[in-house]
Amino acid sequence: MIQMRTYDSREEWLKARKSYIGGSDAAAVLGMNPWMSNTELWEIKTGRRTKTFLDDNEFVKYGHDAEPLLRELFKLDYPEMEVFYEEGNMWTNDRFPFGHASLDGWLKDEFGRLGILEIKTTNLLNKSMSDKWKDQIPDNYYLQCLHYMMVLEADFAIVKAQLKSERDGDVYLQTKHYWIERRDVEEDIETLREAEEEFYQCILKDKEPALILPEI
């Protein structure tokens, strides 16, 4: 059974999701998070390490404040979609007891299909960062979407990305929409499911997983 709970405070929401693997954890499970290894994530989930939150970071704060505005713009650009959102949402699915999903929004298209809305803002500080968004989304965000599609058994996901850059004092904004159809990524979802299930057993058994070194 798939169900959604909502939490009135950030503290309650953070406490509730601590026992689960979330979308932002998915890349670390597979050793594909550029900022956290799978063993560091295991240390956080088992209480050996405290997770660092970057709420005061100017880029993180910008993304948080921009999210509701970008969600409203999405509604204007895609009037055929029904867009839903509730503050403090957390989804679970008893088919995947190890995972939860906290969403920027969920969708229903004109055919009644269920979709995920993921909103990203990023500052493109160099060419390397720009290349990661060229005709694709970065791997860690792709895996985040797969995780959400798994938990909600969704048919598709859309990433709305606002790409921001600054040159000579001017601000340039580019908005892109990346579509992921479930039928195209079933194998990747299954690979992620297997990896998360194995990682979750390491949490339950308090057994450190083998370090996954990122590919260079």
Which descriptors apply to this entry?
216 residues, alpha+beta, Lambda Exonuclease, Chain A, three-stranded antiparallel beta sheet, 38% helix, 25% strand
Question: Could you characterize what this model shows?
Answer:
- It is a single chain.
- With 216 residues, this protein is α+β, with helices and mostly antiparallel strands.
- It has one domain: Lambda Exonuclease, Chain A (Alpha-Beta Complex).
- 38% of the residues lie in helices and 25% in strands.
- The chain has seven helices and eight strands; from the N terminus they run βααααβββββααββα.
- The strands form two sheets. The protein has a five-stranded mixed β-sheet with strand order 2-5-6-7-8. The chain has a three-stranded antiparallel β-sheet with strand order 1-3-4, with helices on one face.
- The relative contact order is 0.17.
- The model has no long low-confidence stretch (mean pLDDT 92).
Shape: globular
Indicate the percent of residues in helices: 25-40%
Q: Unreliable stretches, pLDDT < 50, 5 or more residues?
A: none
Classify the fold: give the CATH topology.
Lambda Exonuclease, Chain A
In short:
This protein is of the alpha+beta class. It contains 7 helices and 8 strands; from the N terminus they run βααααβββββααββα.
Annotate the secondary structure layout.
Layout: E1 2-6, H1 10-17, H2 26-29, H3 38-45, H4 58-77, E2 82-84, E3 89-93, E4 100-101, E5 105-108, E6 114-123, H5 127-132, H6 139-152, E7 156-167, E8 170-181, H7 182-204
Parallel strand pairs: 6-7
Antiparallel strand pairs: 1-3, 2-5, 3-4, 5-6, 7-8
Helix pairs in contact: 6-7
